[in-house]
Amino acid sequence: MRCLLALTLLTLAVALAQDQDFTSAQFMCPELNPADELPCTQPCLTSQDCVGDTMCCPSACGHSCKIPTKVVHKAGVCPWEPKPQNLELCAEQNQCSEDADCDGDNKCCFRKWAIHTEPQGPTYTGNSQSRRACNPSSQVT
């Protein structure tokens, strides 16, 4: 019985270690900046086409090998805020794109029509990536 328990715990530990949600370091492509893309650099189809620690990312030239950025997910949740009742022209600009853009323990949270740096809150469990921020030139319908 102890062997079965030990085997189960070992299997669970291996599964959690391989699950991306439980790994401490996750990486993503840097933000697309067309001004930094010219002239076009090493084109790629997949990250296997890239050398070293680079990965295949979208670029102004299609796809090119770039050094990935580390994604920092801070503990805690965004504070709850009800959806606005009036549909207004979206004039707000995003202040952040991920938690790492925010100082201290602050989180990158969706607020009304844009994403802002906010202190942690007790109720909302979503993240900014799961909510759609508006385009400043578009009208919400």
TrEMBL record:
<feature type="domain" description="WAP">
    <location>
        <begin position="29"/>
        <end position="69"/>
    </location>
</feature>
<feature type="domain" description="WAP">
    <location>
        <begin position="74"/>
        <end position="120"/>
    </location>
</feature>
<feature type="region of interest" description="Disordered">
    <location>
        <begin position="120"/>
        <end position="141"/>
    </location>
</feature>
<protein>
    <recommendedName>
        <fullName>WAP domain-containing protein</fullName>
    </recommendedName>
</protein>
<keyword id="KW-0732">Signal</keyword>
<dbReference type="GO" id="GO:0045087">
    <property type="term" value="P:innate immune response"/>
</dbReference>
<dbReference type="GO" id="GO:0005615">
    <property type="term" value="C:extracellular space"/>
</dbReference>
<keyword id="KW-0646">Protease inhibitor</keyword>
<dbReference type="GO" id="GO:0004867">
    <property type="term" value="F:serine-type endopeptidase inhibitor activity"/>
</dbReference>
<dbReference type="InterPro" id="IPR050514">
    <property type="entry name" value="WAP_four-disulfide_core"/>
</dbReference>
<dbReference type="GO" id="GO:0019731">
    <property type="term" value="P:antibacterial humoral response"/>
</dbReference>
<dbReference type="InterPro" id="IPR036645">
    <property type="entry name" value="Elafin-like_sf"/>
</dbReference>
<feature type="signal peptide">
    <location>
        <begin position="1"/>
        <end position="17"/>
    </location>
</feature>
<dbReference type="Pfam" id="PF00095">
    <property type="entry name" value="WAP"/>
</dbReference>
<dbReference type="InterPro" id="IPR008197">
    <property type="entry name" value="WAP_dom"/>
</dbReference>
